[in-house]
Amino acid sequence: MADAVIWTFTASDGYRWHYRHFPPSHKPSVRVVCLHGIQSHGGWYDASCRHLCDAGFDVYFLDRRGSGLNTQARGDAPSFRRLIDDVAEFIQVQRGPGSPPLVVSAISWGGKLAAGLCYRFPGLLDGLAMLTPGFCPRVRPPTAERLAIARASVTAPTKLFPIPLNDLALFTATPRWRQFIADDPLSLHKATARFLLQSLKLDVYLKRAPKRITVPTLLLLAGEDRIIDNAKTRRFVERFAAKRKDVIEYSGAHHTLEFEPDPRQVFDDLTKWVREHVATRSK
What is the pLDDT at residue 283? Predict the structure, then answer.
């Protein structure tokens, strides 16, 4: 199994952020760029990255600026477009003559960035896989806190507010993974008023995105998800212009599919889909 190598990438605005690279032992058939959720980071998803790498894929997991390994401007971002541009700039470096097809695998809140990427940079990807994407959340800050965030976004944009995901049962029912999250020093528990407002602006932006999402799309859902609304998420993805849209829902699973007692079926389904619907397009 490949070990992750940690590198940094400097965005066009000068921000230097970290990513993990899982290089395959042979010439890759596909390049996979992974995006994490609002609270997590690449360190949560080592097992799935290794699985994809062992399948012959060149795997990169990006830590979003202000989260994970990135300590500068913790919990903050200038705008949602800047976050999309971070991913696009990285991908543009990876693409070139003779490069393998590229798929983005996006988890939870990262699914919003991936959809925004397809809208802002059409034609950049060859495939899109989304695991419990955060288009239609069930969990939101209380009304009073939303009002405080709105005020602070004008008067004190870098003021921090709690991310409303402190109940570990929202992520997983597996005790060892709940303990892993509780002990994780890199998890993001607070975000700035500016970031939270930009997340809402991204929601508005994405209302126009489905018509631009034309690449083969895979949607993986957790049957017992308490963070996102599966039915609304399905309806949103059904609006994508992509001719190929596949949906798999795992009965009894919780939001973070990586943290199921045995997530191998999820990994296998993702690997098989990428191989059949992305890798074969280049042949």
Answer: 46
